[in-house]
From TrEMBL:
PROSITE patterns: HTH_LYSR (PS50931). This is Hca operon transcriptional activator HcaR. Residues 2-59 form the HTH lysR-type domain. CDD domains: PBP2_LTTR_aromatics_like. InterPro entries: LysR_HTH_N, LysR_subst-bd, WH-like_DNA-bd_sf, WH_DNA-bd_sf. It comes from Deinococcus xinjiangensis. Keywords: DNA-binding, Transcription, Transcription regulation.
Length: 307
């Protein structure tokens, strides 16, 4: 069987044209090199070198074999390097699921930085609800999920990325828009627009509990499944909305955003399947995400609640 060491020995001998110098080059004794070349010729079945007292010359068969030997060694070197880069998470493919809101803050910065640092990793993005991401992670359809807590599947691991408070989205001409900061009780008499509960149950219930603690139940007059649609309803004066703060990056004519006192905090986490914990590409992506976003804040105080 021809081994890579045989090819390395042969190439060294062909280039040095001397057994002694070739042996020194590949760090073996001369007899070992001679035996290696003899074994190689036996495997090939034809003489590859002409041995004289002064120098070594290649036979015509040896000259042709040298071309292939160099190509094989180069290919082997490339394969080794690709394997090492894959082990470092520098090549491959990564499929990332994300909840829709992250497209307006966080996700673009993470993906842009990751692609700059790991240009040989192909990144596939899929917009999915948290439930869809959990199912996709179990099925191996995505590698990493970015979602809001809670993660309900105990077979999945998660890591906090960043935390965002809720803010109030108001029609630009609304009287409350003149205030710099609001209390949730300021919105007690306002009509609300919101997600259907079945799409954002944890989010929905937490907001309802927060409002209840302020002594009112929000009157939801219109539902929509996408944040841009809900904000368009706000701009039209249909109602007010309580998005996560990074939605305030979505500038829409007729909508203003105001901070809320003691607003609930939404925690965004990265999630992956436990068997993939040591996947180097996932590790690299999580490290980039933490570098871009920064460490999550300390647990909330003064009555703040985590969704």
């Amino acid at each position: 069987m021809i081994e890579l060491r045989h090819l390395r020995h042969f190439v060294a001998l062909a280039e040095e044209e001397h057994f002694g110098r070739a042996a020194e080059r590949v760090f073996v004794v001369q007899q070992a090199l001679s035996n290696s070349i003899r074994n190689l010729e036996e495997e090939v079945g034809v003489p590859l070198v002409l041995r004289t007292t002064r120098r070594v010359q290649l036979t015509p068969a040896g000259q042709e074999f040298l071309i292939g030997a160099r190509e094989t060694l180069a290919a082997a070197t490339q394969s080794i390097e690709r394997a090492r880069r894959a082990a470092r998470g520098e090549v491959g493919r990564l499929t990332v699921g994300f909840v829709s809101g992250l497209a307006f803050g966080g996700l673009p910065e993470i993906v842009r930085t990751f692609r700059e640092l790991y240009p040989n990793v192909s990144v596939d993005l899929r917009e999915q609800t948290a439930a869809e991401q959990e199912a996709a992670l179990r099925a191996g359809l995505i590698d990493v999920g970015l979602m809001l807590l809670p993660v309900r599947d105990p077979s999945l691991d998660s890591r906090p990325l960043w935390r965002q408070p809720l803010v109030a989205a108001l029609p630009a001409e609304h009287p409350l828009a003149r205030k710099r900061k609001l209390k949730i009780s300021d919105l007690a008499a306002e009509p609300f627009v919101f997600f259907p509960r079945h799409l954002r149950a944890t989010y929905f219930d937490q907001v309802m509990r927060w409002c209840a603690s302020a002594g009112f139940a929000p009157h939801v007059v219109q539902e929509a499944i996408e944040v841009p649609t809900l904000l368009s309803l706000v701009a039209a004066g249909v109602g007010v909305f309580l998005p996560i703060e990074f939605f305030s990056r979505l500038s829409l004519a007729g909508v203003v955003y105001r901070p809320l006192e003691q607003a609930p905090i939404v925690e965004i986490v990265s999630v992956w399947s436990r068997p993939q914990t040591k996947n180097p590409i996932i590790i690299a992506f999580l490290q980039v995400a933490e570098q871009v976003i920064g460490p999550p804040d300390q647990p909330p105080v003064d009555g703040e609640q985590i969704l």
